[in-house]
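look at this stuff:

>
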Amino acid sequence: MSPTIHAAAAAAALTDAGSTQLILAALTGIAIIVLLITQLKLHPFLSLTIGSLTVGALAGVPFADALTSFGTGVGATVAGVGVLIALGAMFGRLLADSGGADQIVDTIVNRASVRALPWAMALVGALIGLPMFFEIGLVLLMPVILLVARRANLPLMRVGIPALAGLSVMHGLVPPHPGPLVAVAALNANLGVTMAFGVLIAIPVVALSGPTFARFAARWVPVSAPALFVPSGAPVATRSGGAASGTEVATDAPTSGATRRPSFGTTLFTVLLPVVLMLGKALVDIFLAEGATLRTALDFLGTPLIALLLAVLVAMVTFGRGSGMNRKQLSTSLEKSLPPIAGILLIVAAGGGFKQTLVDTGIGGVLAHAIAHSSLSPLLLAWVVAVLIRLATGSATVATVTASGILAPLALTMSTGQTSLLVLAIGAGSLFFSHVNDAGFWLVKEYFGLSVGETIRSWSVMETLISVSGLVFVLLLGLVV
């Protein structure tokens, strides 16, 4: 039997009674996902799977077809986005184990004056956040933030908020992070255009929610950096002679085999390589005629899979061998990069299955039809949907994959630029008001030694500012795209 609903069946489902049934099925499925995650503390992978099957059943789809739709979505997502996430994890691990991340931090911070330090820390957060998963980047940055604040004798929020803002904005708005990648795939958006728009919007958003907001956060939460503590297994923040400390910081970080750091120029080149290739592909597609040699070459090299694969291969030389790792140590570093992302891969895959179920049952078409005939801007609606799911589940990734699935049919009627802005609107919404159901909230609270109220007045407000200002800039860009 076909994995999708036949056109005739889909058309019949668009009657008033059928449309009501489909909408109720979608709302019930989403409510079940939220309830399972928030109340029963069930893993999002299981919750999304159960929610997908519930949607199919309530929509009147044969069980075999619902399973096929879910499996098709899971397979397509793993084959597309899953591979990119795995490559990104390998790259991020090499960056951390080689000392390349430390090199970026030390070089930038060493060259910044006290007045410019908040801006330098925002840049550190953005650069570290570009290739790394949010949780990994957060753990890596925390010891650096605490050491820098203590050395410069600055209020913790003046240094911490800018770094966290840079990290969070990259996570929500700029591929190749899992959330934006899933949204790009689900909405069939152009990755290069989305990345270009994401970087364009990220710059003012980081400036506003980072160094600018840090001045207010330092008044609302006037705390100093607590004594440095690095949990066992956390990445090394600084080494002997680093920018954040004049003495060696002892940690129980795993031995990577690195005996020296790659240079700052080499590290920066390697980090930016996949970004440049993907942006180059987007530019030549706009400005060069089809068939031109340069366009053909960059169309291949700028394909996300090829760009990230090349980045990992280059990093094995510049980060791995360049830091003194031998073949065994390099292999071990790559192997250790994959287990931590297993949960992310499962959530993303199940999100793809949920999206495909919404599409195949015809629910997406009904919702897209309703949205298209409403007076509400699709970009604003996308943001609101992501915000609601984010508040309920605490997961930016779950908010992104679920909202993308709901809005996927609407993207079929939008231009390339508008589809990319739809991705960014969802990404901005997925960052709204991190609170007690978000793991990031507790990481910040414990590392910074804050109370729940202080964490809300600093971290949560910062996340909300990122989300709202991100939406504003998306809407403004939408006026000219």
Remarks:
- The CA atoms of residues 49 and 350 lie 6 Å apart.
- DSSP finds 21 helices and no strands in the chain.
- The chain has one domain: 73-478.
- The first helix runs from residue 7 to 12.
